[in-house]
Amino acid sequence: MSLANLPIIVEDELFLYPFMITPIFLSDEKNIKALDMAINDSSAVMVVCSKLAHSGERDFESIYEYGVIGNVMRRVAMPDGRVKILFQGLSRGKITQPISSDPLIAQVQSVGLEEFESSKIEAGLNVLKESVKSLSLLNHFFPPDLLRAIDDSNEASRVCDLVCSALHLKKDIAYGFFTQLNLEQKILDIIEYLNAQIETNKLQKEIKSKVSSKLDRANKEYFLKEQLKEIQRELGMDLDKEAQITQYRNKLEAGRKFMSDDAYKEIEKNISKLSKMHTDSAESSMTSSYLDWALDMPFGKFSTKKLTVKDVQKELDSDHFGLEKPKSRIVEYFGLKELLHSRGLEDNKGAILCFVGPPGIGKTSLANSISNALKRELVRIALGGLEDVNELRGHRRTYIGAMPGRIVQGLIEAKSMNPVVVLDEIDKVARSYKGDPTAVLLEILDPEQNSKFRDYYLNFHIDLSKVIFIATANDASAIPAPLRDRMEFIWLNSYTPQEKFEIAKRYLWPNELKKHGLKSSEVVIKKDALNLLISDYTRESGVRNLRHRIADILRKSALEILSEQTKKISITTKNLENYLDKKVFEITVISGKNEIGIANGLAWTAVGGDVLKIEALKIKGKGAMQITGQLGDVMKESATIAFSLVKSLIDKGEICISKNLIQKDKDGIDMAVYDSYDLHIHVPEGATPKDGPSAGITMTTVIASILSDTPIYSDVAMTGEITLSGKVLPIGGLKEKLIAAYKAGVKKAIIPLKNYDRDLKDIPQQVRDNMEIIGVEDITEVLKVALVK
């Protein structure tokens, strides 16, 4: 194949083939220079395609490598400055080496197609011609003259080029076929493309046929419906939508003075749109649904009861026993609102209250009491597991099944613009690809922003500044920090057994009797039985499970009365087990026996406090330590710190070691006791994950006990974080821990001195009166109290 240096003309739109005689219009300066050079030198010229249409670039990076070598048959100057040439293609060419960029000149090699077995090429050519005929029946790509030329030709390469030129291929597809030099494979590739086009054209033809049929049917239905409407009008059965439009307009005008301008404009726009729509269209139904929601908004409707602190205090005291601190804070909150209102000042800048505490402690019922005291509707929005931001803000109306958000639905349900809205389980809001609901909650709970809250469905601003928002959560740390900043937390801690007794006696038992249709004279529970029910059949900080157990008792009691076995039932400690399944044993009562290597730790759980036994065992070894009980990393670190601290105390002589524990090495020298034994520390209930630093002093005491063979007082429990220097650091959850210690029969509780000074006033009086609470700041103080002298 010959090589020659040829000028290059770049064509932006046409893809040329060797057999073509084609007019080309040139306006680019480089192209015209290349043309002049070819004419002056009486040489051939190569026409190549640019990689992008209308690129305007004339360099070797922007053009294809392959093109068509041919002659310029004619040149004509156009009035608009362009040059028209008539180009005759002769053969394929490939640029092998660029020579000049202005004009484009390159070394060009003429290339031909590779042919193999003539029988395969002939068979493939016949199949190709059949595919062309099939496609020509479905579209207009192939004029009759071209079909005859394809059918009459036996030159496979020419037929391939004719077919490709007729298909109006995209530039990259055409170039792929053009550069395929294996003729057999080229025929197969073009056949595959033709077959795909045949299937596509068949499908398009089928779709057009179906659409045409549906349009005809729709036109027929339209004319029939119009006739039906005329018949209905003649019979006095006018079912036109004018009445509906009139009703919407009347509602709009009635609430206009209470609406914002953007709300009025949006609703009025949709009423006008609906009046122009056909009744049976899908959009008409969507617009009607929108107007039903929008006009159901309680614009201008507010609870008119005057806010008084006395009513709030009275309702809280009548509905809840205990919870003095939370109730006091709630009263302060509404006291401030009453003062601002009485002085004509805005009261919408206050903090959002968030009740935090274990399940069943009374968070939602406090919100109910506030609602009752203010005579406002209560709207409860459960946020647990919520991950779709549109659930709160509403769906845009472009979605099928779109609805307003839960906030708007709550206002419509309450029929008031100032209800009490409880955002339940705000700590369990989830974040996903559907958005972050926390971002919407930030706007809802921010007094500076919620006066113009925008629901995506309604598409206008809503004033939420008069709504009283109350959030509830089990774990405040799980609430995102920006959201925590907008709320004031009111902590609800565990009830003492005495408080549970009073709640059950005053509220739970009478309420459940009423629910079960029983009289107080028919079923009676003795005081001891109720105390046993609280201590041995429930495991919780609140009273939810206690209510369930009371309901269990009353269901069986109702069945006995119904079967006329008795007319009066008395629940005592002896027959309580007949009405309930089994005891749960919330707190393991202390053993009463002083033991070596067993100490009582105090732990906080999601359902309150617990007494945690920590055990240690020594085995002859080399000073290794093993820790079991499914402990977290922090708790394992506490054990390591405790072991190191005890070693230090032994070395200093602050922990006395019995002589019978001291062993000698092979040289007869006394060994340190901690190098003579391996320790195994275990925290029972191994299936339950445990973590936290507050077991530090307990682990130190256990290790000191086992290495010195000194018993630990069984009626002592302790909690506190330990440092390597022996300092005792403060911990959290003190109230729940001390309540658990009291329930377990602990006589002395060792706590960090900082907790003693700071938190002791929060401990129930009943617990303080029945248990000695000792504040410590060094481990030596702990060991003096905990170890038997």
From TrEMBL:
The Lon N-terminal domain, residue ranges: 6-198
UniProt GO BP: cellular response to heat; protein quality control for misfolded or incompletely synthesized proteins
One Gene Ontology term of the molecular function aspect: ATP hydrolysis activity
SUPFAM superfamilies documented for this protein: P-loop containing nucleoside triphosphate hydrolases, PUA domain-like, Ribosomal protein S5 domain 2-like
GO cellular component: cytoplasm
CDD domains listed in its UniProt record: RecA-like_Lon
Domain Lon proteolytic: residue ranges: 593-789
Keyword Protease: yes
Subcellular localization(s) per the UniProt record: Cytoplasm
Induction: By heat shock.
Active site: 694, 737
Major localisation: cytoplasm
Reaction equations catalysed: Hydrolysis of proteins in presence of ATP
UniProtKB keywords: ATP-binding, Cytoplasm, DNA-binding, Hydrolase, Nucleotide-binding, Protease, Serine protease, Stress response
InterPro entries assigned to the protein according to its UniProt record, in alphabetical order: AAA+_ATPase (IPR003593), ATPase_AAA_core (IPR003959), Lon_bac (IPR027543), Lon_bac/euk-typ (IPR004815), Lon_lid (IPR054594), Lon_proteolytic (IPR008269), Lon_Prtase (IPR027065), Lon_prtase_N (IPR003111)
Residues the entry annotates as binding ATP: 357-364
Keyword Magnesium: no
Enzyme nomenclature, EC number: 3.4.21.53
Known function: ATP-dependent serine protease that mediates the selective degradation of mutant and abnormal proteins as well as certain short-lived regulatory proteins. Required for cellular homeostasis and for survival from DNA damage and developmental changes induced by stress. Degrades polypeptides processively to yield small peptide fragments that are 5 to 10 amino acids long. Binds to DNA in a double-stranded, site-specific manner.
HAMAP family linked to this entry: lon_bact
Family the entry assigns: Belongs to the peptidase S16 family.
Name of protein: Lon protease
